[in-house]
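A.,

Following up on our hallway conversation. Structure tokens first:
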């Protein structure tokens, strides 16, 4: 009988120790979500953005984590489907109980997730350029606002004498709203809108669009196509006899990685405007590029959204440490005013939850890399609401 009692006691002690150890393990980590399109038309751009966020997590964990906790990534696939982004965001916040989420590319995905984050009190770090016309205390918008990409690109084009402009985009909220803003400024700057066309996201047929371009005879195309539609467009554009010399294209969603996928020969001499290019010569950028290529392949291309996604994790870490809390509301309050040197240059989080950052226009060359040919004079403060397109609107 005594032996049975001792065995039971030992078993209880063992179970208690196991529970305590399990609790200690649980308490030593903090979960974050990484939510991107790992499949579908947007996967060409988003898989590597998820990789960049993972790289930042791995670096931070190697140095001890955040507030003594290692970061545990819960990765989900938005599958290039906007309702799926909302469903996965809900899962991450309510089932996985993540402290924050890093993710999204298209504005359609962001707008699908927005009510979920507002309802659940979560915090989303969104790393891609967008059309503005939105502020939420539940989103940190680190990609370019219109005045940090679209409008500087237009101003550069006009400075080069391109006054007759054709707008081409994917048919969803970002291209249509960005082009609405561009049209207001084209009129204001006494330039001419040669035409405006949209194709479904993932669309591959551009013959009718190219016929309209031929008829309109523009001097430049401003391109807001997203995903793998760009591959089809540039192939059909070249087949129609166009080159960068005869009809230049300025793109907002083509960067080094897309250039590799499309084929550098198709894009040589074409332009893009971003807040980051892989070719930036700073020590911080060289360190980032070296680390990414060591982990994901020595020939891996690095893009603006990847650089933003990487820095988003570091911005979150800095805000958590400033707030001494993982609570989203505390982190959102603490992140305002945080500055750091980054692969993009110096960045600062504005009160509206967006970044003050530099703007660069580059020309595509050998290997799909972009040479910077124009840049802003210092950093550019974000303006979520364009004054011509949305007069009188400001962030709350």
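Then the amino acids I'd put at each of the 396 positions:
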């Amino acid at each position: 009988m005594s032996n049975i009692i001792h065995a039971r006691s030992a078993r209880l002690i063992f179970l208690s120790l196991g529970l305590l150890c399990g609790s200690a393990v649980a308490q030593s980590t903090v979960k974050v979500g990484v939510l991107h399109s790992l499949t579908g038309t947007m996967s060409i751009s988003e898989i590597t953005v998820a990789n960049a966020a993972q790289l930042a997590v791995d670096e931070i964990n190697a140095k001890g984590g955040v507030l003594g906790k290692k970061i545990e990534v819960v990765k989900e696939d938005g599958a290039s489907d906007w309702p799926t982004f909302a469903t996965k965001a809900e899962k991450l916040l309510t089932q996985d109980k993540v402290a924050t989420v890093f993710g999204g590319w298209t504005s359609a995905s962001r707008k699908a997730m927005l009510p979920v984050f507002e309802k659940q009190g979560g915090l989303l770090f969104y790393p891609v350029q967008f059309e503005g016309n939105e502020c939420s205390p539940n989103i940190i918008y680190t990609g370019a606002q219109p005045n940090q990409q679209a409008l500087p690109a237009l101003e550069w084009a006009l400075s080069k004498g391109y006054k007759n402009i054709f707008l081409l985009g994917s048919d969803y909220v970002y291209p249509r709203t960005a082009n609405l803003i561009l049209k207001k400024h084209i009129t204001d700057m006494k330039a001419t809108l040669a035409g405006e066309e949209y194709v479904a996201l993932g669309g591959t047929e551009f013959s009718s669009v190219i016929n309209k371009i031929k008829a309109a005879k523009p001097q430049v195309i401003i391109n807001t196509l997203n995903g793998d539609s760009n591959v089809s467009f540039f192939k059909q554009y070249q087949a129609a006899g166009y080159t960068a010399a005869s009809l230049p294209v300025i793109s907002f969603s083509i960067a080094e990685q897309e250039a590799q996928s499309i084929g550098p020969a198709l894009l040589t001499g074409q332009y893009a405007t971003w807040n980051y290019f892989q070719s930036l010569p700073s020590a911080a950028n060289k360190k980032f590029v070296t680390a990414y290529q060591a982990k994901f392949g020595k020939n891996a291309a690095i893009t603006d959204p990847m650089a933003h996604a990487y820095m988003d994790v570091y911005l979150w870490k800095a805000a958590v440490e400033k707030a001494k809390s993982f609570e989203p509301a505390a982190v959102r309050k603490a992140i305002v005013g945080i500055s750091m040197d980054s692969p993009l240059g110096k960045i600062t989080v504005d009160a509206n939850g967006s970044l003050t950052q530099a703007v660069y226009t580059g020309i595509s060359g050998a290997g799909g890399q972009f040479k910077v040919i124009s840049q802003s004079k210092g950093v550019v403060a974000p303006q979520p609401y364009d004054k011509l397109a949305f007069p009188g609107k400001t962030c709350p």
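Residues 290 and 298 are 8 Å apart (CA to CA). Curious whether your intuition agrees with the design.

B.
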